[in-house]
Design a protein that fits this description.
The protein is of the alpha+beta class. The chain has one helix and five strands; from the N terminus they run αβββββ. The protein has a domain of about 70 residues. This is Porin.
Length: about 100
């Protein structure tokens, strides 16, 4: 019986957990020239982000038929100013074969 009472008491809290959180801003991303070319300010924050990447592909036209070399790379660079100075995070992921 205690378990049923506890479950019924938690129902209002669990229902509110599934509500969608409001977006910080519906405005489009603005350029962030203070951090460099290609950076955009994340709406509702003081952080700037730059997404970059590339894909390369080649063709093997020799008598041996091998796999086509394909490579890809994506990089995420975020920067923000803090009370202690600038904070930066950088992640680069590469995949493919040569």
């Amino acid at each position: 019986m205690r378990c049923l009472g506890l479950c019924l008491a938690l129902v209002p809290f669990s229902a509110s957990a599934f509500e969608r959180a409001p977006h910080p801003s519906e405005a489009p991303m603005e350029p962030c020239p203070s951090q460099g070319a290609g950076f955009f300010r994340i709406p509702g924050t003081a952080s700037c982000i730059r997404l970059s990447g590339r894909v390369t592909a080649g063709a093997d036209v020799g008598p041996r038929h091998r796999a086509v070399p394909v490579q890809g790379r994506i990089a995420v660079d975020t920067r923000t100013d803090s009370a202690l100075g600038p904070v930066r995070s950088f992640v680069r992921i590469e995949a493919g074969q040569r």
